[in-house]
Task: structure prediction
Amino acid sequence: MASYSTNQFKQGLKIILDGDPFTIVDNDIVKPGKGQAFNRIKVRNLKSGRVIEKTYKSGESVEAADVVETDMEYSYSDGDSWTFMNTETFEQMTASAAAMGDTVKWLKGQESCTVTLWNDEPISVVAPNFVTLRITETDPGVRGDTASGGTKPAVLESGAVVKVPLFVEQGELLKIDTRTGEYVSRAKED
Amino acid sequence: MLKKTEQQSWRPSATHSALCRRAQCLRQIRNYFFAEGVLEVDTPLLMPWGSTDPSLSNFFVESGDGVEPKLRGYLQTSPEFAMKRLLAAGSGDIYQLGRAFRAEQPSRHHLPEFVLLEWYRLGYNDHRLMDDVQALVACVVPGLSFTRRRYADVFFEAFNIDPHEASLAALMSCATNAGIELGQSASDRSLILEALFSSLFLRPDRAGDALFVYDFPVEQAAYARIAAGPPAVAQRFELIVGGLEIANGYFEVVEYTEQMDRHNEEKSRRDRLGLPFVELDPRFIEAMQAGLPDCSGVALGVDRLLMLGSMAESIQDTTSFNPYEEYGIGRNG
Result:
């Protein structure tokens, strides 16, 4: 079983704690003057996203997590699982609803997503930073109002609801930033 | 003057104003001790004997080829042994403002070579020395407010346990709740206390005030006197400012046999931790036999003091060049 010593700790290192995979987000060494050195780390649970703090006596070791991030294209969903494909090997993998989390609301098909695999099983999926989606439902626009800064809700074809400016219309294509969930601009038809 | 960038790694790691601040700080320290009538001393950095402290790691060096006699020795982790020899020889109050070497893992708050201010006051106990430390720190970093609290009181407030009396099981469950993983050392009382202490205080906090913690558990007495109590406590203090440990002070043990007992405790701790044997400086032992006068002593990290009241994110922002970077070693994390 692979393991890491505390002196290998750094941001991004993947470790197993209490049976779950974590990534190190911060590593600090604290050493009381006449005492032992400790590594204090902040770690994010790769399944739940929750961040916790742990302190290790320097020199201890921790089990390594076999975690890889890979780019895969979203193919389809049967409602219970989401199927992704490696566009080089055409290998397919399915992610559970738990692994998908909120990401589902940005996907309609063929997006290139970052899939995190733990022991070759998808545990989390991140949508592309920007997606282009069509509005399926929104209130009629206000003509000529392009500057007032008012917003209204719009339902997108993937199911997400975003705030959009008053002037955009049902049926239009929009560019959305999935990290913030915010409208960026109108998008051109292909 | 420009700071180091990735493209220009020859440049210093501190800004010009940080270097001016540093020079001013060194002057303020010397002015303080001059006004107090404390004698400045500068003892050798290279000595044939190293530190026996299990928590410190020595740098070992040797002279180059072709020159006889060959010298091998240790870059001093602190000037304690040499300064105590001066005290035993009748120097009176002394201070030293110089370099110290400690092999440590790179971090935001450690340099392998740093500026240490160490001083000793005859006839002072730990509380009077805290007054002295406070007066000096106030000269360099104005506007700090100081509080003093017993180790037991801060522990009781944070963890609801008495650090002097609590059972090992109670300490262990306290550590587990604080997310502390001790692995093989789970039954080491002193280590659990250190881990809890670190989790409580040693957290960067720019707004933090100055806190003296005193009356340490006897497990962490090192060379501090023990007051019989109950509870028995080590007459030792630490100054923590903004989550940084700035100074460590002791009401020094002066009785020869007790010093040797403490040294033997250090030795057995080194054995337990699997650390290499380091022989105690025989001239230091002779000086202790001759007799150390009643005194208190404190060591203060000057680079860390400079981090206070500045925007320094890292200790390297206070100094011209960071040795770790010169070796191409980045900080972890």
Remarks:
- Chain B touches chain A at residues 53, 55, 104-110, 178-185, 190-191, 194-195, 197-199, 202, 220, 222, 238, 245, 248, 299, 332-333 (CB under 8 Å).
